[in-house]
Design brief:
The chain is mostly helical. The protein has 2 domains: 35 residues; 63 residues, Orthogonal Bundle (Multidrug-efflux Transporter Regulator, Chain: A, Domain 2). It has 5 helices and 3 strands. The chain has a 3-stranded antiparallel sheet with strand order 1-3-2. The protein starts with 5 loop residues before the first helix and ends with a helix.
């Protein structure tokens, strides 16, 4: 494997830092650049999930107990992957659309 010079590594690190800084400070840029939560991975605290999903903490606990949401344990604390939340939402959207298609 070819080695990367220190200056090339530094440039890559700076470019990565610029991307995250712009992504954090300017959400509009993310929309214009078509950057999705699948592209930008984020780990959420359990206390953030009720606001994100508009569910009660008890409902979040139910999703975890039934295996619909799997926490990632980092240094003894739970985190939730944004991609997993996106997948959960898509699953419930599909279920909802099937239910509503039968009602018509």
């Amino acid at each position: 494997m070819p080695s990367i010079s220190c200056s090339a590594r530094a440039k890559t690190t700076v470019e990565t830092a610029k991307f995250w800084l712009v992504a954090v400070l300017d959400p509009k840029w993310m929309q214009e650049e078509n950057v999705t939560s699948t592209t930008v991975r984020r780990l959420y605290l359990p206390s953030e999930l009720p606001e994100i999903l508009r569910l009660t903490p008890e409902q979040i606990d139910h999703l975890v107990r039934t295996g619909q949401l799997r926490p990632i344990r980092i240094c003894g604390e739970d985190r939730f992957d944004s991609r997993e939340l996106d997948a959960l939402i898509e699953t419930y959207k599909q279920i909802s659309s099937r239910r509503h298609s039968y009602v018509q």
